[in-house]
Amino acid sequence: MSFGDKNVRKGVRAFADGKEYVAQAGTGALLNPRVDTTFKAMLTRNTSEAKAALKSFLEAATERKIAKWELRPNDLPVSFVGQRGVSCDISCEFDDGLAADIEMQAFNQEYDYGKRAEYQVSRLEATYLKRGESWEKAPVVYQISILNFIYDFKGGAKSDEEKRPSPVSRFAMRTKDGKCLSNTLNIVFVELPKVYGLEESLDTNTALENWAIFLKDADNPDKKDIIDKLTCKEKGLMEAQKSLSSVSTDMDLWWAEYRQEIYERDRISSIEAATKKGLAKGYEEGLSKGITEGISKGMKDGLSKGRSEGIKEKAISLAKKYMSMGHSAKEAAEFAEIDESLLL
């Protein structure tokens, strides 16, 4: 569906305009939970289903049992003039001091997303400790990103389709030999394209892997059987499905999804057009440069070869004159510094 998905629910191209697209709100169709506005609504609305779904997701992502939580403002405070602000999709704080920042990244931006996550989790930590407080009071924080693309890990191996790597990657500060520092700063990436194949192992998947399947395919009618199995198996996912069904009747969220998809298609089209234009210009300039360099090289080679042939002929002529003075061919060749065979 959106942002490169291959879901069968009709995309924006199948509709005449936005009004027709938004009319799906009354047909029972589900919104795309990979769009940030839908993801946020599904987990943060003031309903029992959304609250249960959020608790389930946070426990799966942090691998901790959560007694209670509180949603905080989405924009982290800026500490100094000029500091880059960070906008979070969902920021939570728990009664034991644990903090979690959940972000939905629907498509691959042009910046280094890994650095962005590191910056974000460090900023999240910096908002908690008050001046004069002990370092012991610094809470554990999580930056959790749902990525609808495969992240290109710097210096790491590419995805091995045969091994079907887990979509879940967990990062903390460690030494090269694996020793932990304090596990205070934690980053969790969930790469949705990697869920392929996990549908066959619902009973042995981790809770977060099953959440990844749900987020990738919840709005895909062809995956209804898989989603039904998941929701019957895990109460948190059942509540998430109920919440998604509820928010999918919201016309404003359908408009938000429509605008997001139009924006993304325009962005991709612009990149493709610029790429084609750049390739065409590069080919033209390369061809022109190649022809120019070829002519130049040919002229240089020709002059060099002609000069060499001319010097050779002159040396032979000189040697023959030397022979006419009574010297042998060998002596003449040595005198003119040429091969004797040229004089025989």
The strand line-up of the biggest sheet is: 1-2-3-4-6-5
Sketch the topology as an H/E string, one letter per element: HHHEEEHEEEHHHHH
- Calculate the mean pLDDT score and round it: 77
Helix run count: 9
**Which structural class should the secondary elements be placed in?**
alpha/beta
What is the first-to-last residue Cα distance? Answer: 84 Å
Assess the beta-strand content as a share of residues: 5-15%
- The number of E-state strands comes to 6
Please tell me what the overall shape is.
elongated
Low confidence ranges: 1-8, 76-86, 157-162
Q: Sketch the major β-sheet.
A: 6 strands, mixed
**Number of spatially distinct domains:** 2
Helical residue percent band? 40-55%
What is the rounded Rg? 34 Å
Give a description of the structure.
The chain has 344 residues and is an alpha/beta fold. The chain has 2 domains: 2-249, no CATH class; 277-343, no CATH class. Helices cover 46% and strands 10% of the residues. The protein has 9 helices and 6 strands. A 6-stranded mixed β-sheet has the order 1-2-3-4-6-5, sandwiched between helices. Strand 3 (99-105), helix 4 (113-126) and strand 4 (141-147) form a beta-alpha-beta unit. Helix 2 (36-44) packs across helix 3 (48-62). The N and C termini lie far apart (84 Å). 28% of the residues are buried. Residues 1-8, 76-86 and 157-162 have low confidence and may be disordered.
